[in-house]
Structure to design on (592 residues):
């Protein structure tokens, strides 16, 4: 481990697998939860949560989750054995109202124990695949398993299960007026490091408009005093850099006439005071005015 | 689309790719953010965020992200072209303080434009790979690209970039007293559907102890009146089912002597009142007492 004042730089080969696991799980988060139901060749049902999971493609619609080999004894999980026997799964999405039952279902019960029963979930027959879906889930994806890719054969090795969506179930109560899934209503949960979970609702949710159709001027186009401001944060600079043009002479003149600005200009000119006012305007969503103010 | 009272069941082939995209992105969330820096064969640097991303294996330590083909014109992204030319990347982790600059960097600037400069991030040389890391990131993973797997060749097709971690950089200010990454301090952000983000801090964070060493009795072992309670929630049942044994006669007798319980028992016996008291105790963390109360 090399060190400088404020950074630990670590070669993963020089720490224990447990330490490595801790860094990886805490840093790569929040992780969405795949609550996967599967069946073995005799039709025995298994239900288990995985947080090595995400969407990876829309066309074809492919999600991937990884039932890893256990770190302590290198054994494999029932879910992996099942998808190798019957190449189907239902990926159920988990929200806050289900989280403690979901956690209970991750208990390592014996083979053949149905976690739907142990965790008290409703087993609903699927339309196109053999594994049932979770009746309580706000959204469920019936999937066929496209392929399984082993990333290694030692303890802690991942096994990528590439699952192609063939049917989608959405509870109407989670749709907005336009028929789209409503993020605040969904109240989804995600896994973090340690025993931590994250709940995506209330103040945890915030919006940033996507800069896909726009092309911001960039932080590099702001003046040096603005870029090196002791007041303006990185988020403030990011928002200013997202504007599509520098302020016109007209908008700068207009801002110079603003009553708060006039008061500042009549006193001892102080960039700190100007920056603080610009920051207040940024927080109020007056981004163009803030940029003009910084160009006085 | 088939419907029953409260569920929309949808065949993904029967809706537009845009509608499908909307369902998938809103349901599979919160998604962690891979802020990937790459270089082309001439050393030009690119920095771009991806939310089709997660950890998938600890041994070997492998993360996967997907720079998809664009839905509107089927073109590929500079990041994909770069990792095919120079098989290395740095996966920088994003927290709240960086989120607006990160969003700005997702602007589609021309090839050769360095998003470190446009977004105002500090370019720090890596130890083992050519792409630089983001100085502002709380954690950064230097990776070699193990392989790239195309999931299709049409618009919206994913491209799995399997990245093996070869060096880890952790800012000391995000470590706790034991040297572990501190989840509340990290203040990570994740992508949701639409323009939504989720911030993993404050009240959004909660803990559930992992049931790995324990084997809960299961919700199926609770009495029918408890399982069908109009008061107790699924989370209440999940927590009760996580206890390792049913209450003993002694603990039930002790609970019967509890002053609040005695008051209830002296009045008209009402399971609703008992369930409400059990719920209150569950919220206070007195799980065993709540289970004994429900067995009076």
């Amino acid at each position: 481990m090399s060190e400088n004042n404020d950074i630990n730089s670590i070669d993963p080969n020089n720490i224990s697998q447990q330490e490595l696991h801790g860094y990886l799980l805490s840093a790569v988060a929040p992780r969405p939860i795949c609550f996967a139901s599967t069946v073995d060749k005799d039709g025995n049902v298994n239900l288990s949560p995985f947080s090595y999971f995400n969407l990876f493609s829309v066309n074809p619609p492919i999600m991937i989750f990884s039932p890893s080999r256990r770190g302590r004894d290198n054994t494999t999980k029932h879910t992996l054995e099942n998808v190798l026997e019957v190449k189907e799964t239902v990926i159920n999405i988990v929200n806050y109202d289900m989280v403690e039952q979901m956690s209970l279902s991750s208990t390592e019960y014996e083979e053949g124990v149905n976690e739907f029963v142990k965790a008290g979930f409703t087993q609903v027959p699927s339309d196109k695949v053999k594994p049932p879906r979770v009746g309580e889930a706000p959204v469920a994806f019936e999937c066929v398993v496209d392929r399984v890719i082993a990333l290694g054969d030692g303890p802690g090795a991942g096994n990528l299960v590439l699952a192609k969506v063939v049917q989608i179930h959405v509870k109407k109560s989670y749709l907005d007026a336009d028929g789209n899934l409503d993020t605040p209503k969904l109240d989804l949960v995600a896994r973090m490091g340690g025993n931590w979970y994250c709940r995506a609702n209330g103040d945890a949710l915030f919006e940033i408009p996507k800069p896909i159709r726009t092309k911001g001027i960039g932080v590099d186009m702001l003046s040096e005093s603005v870029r090196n401001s002791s007041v303006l944060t990185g988020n403030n600079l990011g928002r200013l850099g997202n504007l599509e043009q520098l302020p016109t002479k007209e908008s700068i003149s207009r801002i110079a006439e603003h009553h708060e600005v006039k008061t500042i200009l009549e006193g001892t000119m102080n960039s700190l005071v100007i920056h603080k006012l610009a920051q207040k305007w940024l927080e109020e969503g007056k981004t163009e005015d803030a940029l003009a103010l910084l160009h006085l």
